[in-house]
Design brief:
This protein is of the alpha/beta class and 468 residues long. Helices cover 32% and strands 21% of the residues. An eight-stranded mixed β-sheet has the order 3-4-5-2-6-7-1-8, sandwiched between helices. The chain has a seven-stranded mixed β-sheet with strand order 9-15-12-11-10-13-14. The chain has a two-stranded antiparallel sheet with strand order 16-17.
Length: 468
């Protein structure tokens, strides 16, 4: 890599020298992630004593050729074309006994074979994954076919993935990226929103890198500004590409939710004075869907703020021993008891009225055990669109907050979307903690947000303070 053409920032130099089993490069557009990742991948292959083939994968063959092989600062430019005395021999239609597109990387340790394949072609990548491989490079990991990812990851010794911020509920994050961590030097070098989403137990030494405009030293101020000006501010595209934050690009229901404004710490939550506590339970027992059993505990303050204080989420798809309604009773009681000790008593709690099996089990428990809680059917007379409008209003006026440990609720607020073909009906997905929260606050909605005082002559809206 010619540093006069592509100068390297300190963080990129540290990345090039770092050794680990798997690495994920996330960040803004035009950060130079792929440009620097590809040479490192080749260096790792060259250093290896392995005779196993490696893989470079992207959306399709044409995209890989454009973005990786033939691009400026791409493979051929950096390492040179073999026919002209370089190290890279690219055979797009195969050569000899190898019928698939591949690269022959001519090194001092011998020739290294690198298959080039698109994850859009299942028949081709299944042939390439017939055995073990040494290196695996996946470009645009956030849109990769997950069947390919799962097959390839378990066969590769070293994995390197570049990705752009996307829907944080995607399996590429929950099953892979969120199991990585930044190295100690850069543990705080990245948006706090993304750092908090790295919430799965770390796998081995999997490493997460965040790169932005500032790390691409070849990007001029003028070019950077041109890129920023080309994306409308306030849009989710701006959030993904310019700010480098995860989130669906269109159709979000809670498009005014801002993690920097609406997420608080437990310590901040404890400083508030609460006048009511409540809890909601939404259930889904399927073992074949991502639907969850969601419990939310919340408080309402003397400043008319709704604070989501705690959550507990289960998914039968992830459990060897699926949860039944009778198990949910034990889990919900334990959840309420814990929060009673930590926060306060929510005597009235609210359960999805469509799940009479769980409600029956709860009432059976109450008949046979000492129990202070009152189990109520959730109030559903208010339409979903009206519930959403209430929450949007509370987010706008600063009356809706979430404690930062409630990762699932934060994720749903950032991904809950409208149906693509209908502008007034949300998708039946990413909504279980949202439903649980609504069950909990609906009976107390008059105590939340800007107070509206009605007189015989007019309605007066109090802007900031709760007046008694």
């Amino acid at each position: 890599m010619n540093e006069e053409v592509f100068p390297l920032s300190e963080k990129y130099i540290d990345f090039l020298h770092h050794k680990c089993e798997a690495e994920f490069l996330e960040g803004t557009t035009a950060a130079g992630k792929t440009t620097v990742a590809v040479p490192k991948f080749m260096f790792r292959i060259e250093e290896s004593n392995s005779s196993k083939a490696s893989i470079i994968a992207g959306l399709d063959l044409g995209t890989i050729e454009k973005n990786i092989i033939n691009s400026d600062n791409g493979l051929i430019e950096i390492f040179g074309d073999y026919e002209e005395g370089g190290l890279i021999e690219y055979n797009p239609t195969g050569k000899g006994k190898i019928r698939m597109p591949h690269i022959i990387y001519h090194t001092d340790k011998g020739n290294k074979i690198i298959y080039v394949l698109g994850y859009d072609d299942k028949s081709r990548w299944k042939k390439a994954l017939g055995g073990q491989c040494y290196g695996l490079f996946i470009d645009e990991f956030n849109i990769a076919d997950m069947d390919f990812v799962r097959e390839a990851f378990m066969r590769a010794d070293y994995k390197l993935c570049t990705l752009n911020p996307d829907d944080p509920n995607k399996e590429c994050y929950t099953q892979y990226v969120n199991k990585s961590r930044p190295i100690e030097k850069y543990k705080n070098d990245g948006p706090i929103e993304l750092l908090k989403q790295l919430n799965q137990p770390q796998t081995s030494d999997w490493t997460w890198w965040y790169f932005s405009f500032e790390h691409n030293l070849s990007l001029t101020k003028e070019k950077k500004q041109q890129i920023i000006d080309s994306v409308p501010t306030g849009t989710k595209l701006y959030k993904n590409k310019i700010l480098g934050l995860r989130g669906k690009s269109t159709g979000l229901v809670f498009n005014n939710f801002d993690i920097t404004k609406h997420v608080i710490t437990k310590e901040e939550a404890k400083q508030k004075k609460y006048i009511y506590f409540s809890a909601g339970l939404d259930t889904a027992y399927s073992q074949k869907s991502p639907d969850t059993i969601a419990m939310l505990f919340m408080g309402i303050t003397d400043n008319r703020e709704l604070i989501i204080l705690d959550e507990k989420v289960y998914n039968n798809r992830d459990l060897n021993n699926p949860i039944a309604p009778s198990d949910t009773v034990q889990n919900f009681i334990a959840f309420l008891n814990r929060n009673q000790k930590e926060c306060g008593l929510a005597r009235n709690v609210f359960i999805d009225s469509a799940d009479q099996a769980t409600i029956t089990e709860l009432n059976k428990y109450k008949r046979t055990n000492p129990c202070i809680y009152v189990f109520n059917d959730a109030y559903k007379s208010i339409k979903i669109i009206d519930r959403i409008n209430l929450q949007l209003g509370w987010l706008h006026t600063g009356h809706y907050f979430v404690v930062d440990t409630c990762i699932n609720h934060i994720t749903e607020l950032e991904t809950y979307s409208w149906q693509e073909d209908k502008d007034n009906i949300p998708e039946d997905a990413n909504d279980h903690t949202i439903n649980a929260s609504q069950y909990g606050w609906l009976p107390y909605k008059e105590k939340i947000g800007l107070e509206i005082k009605t007189t015989s002559e007019k309605t007066v809206r109090y802007e900031d303070k709760f007046k008694r």
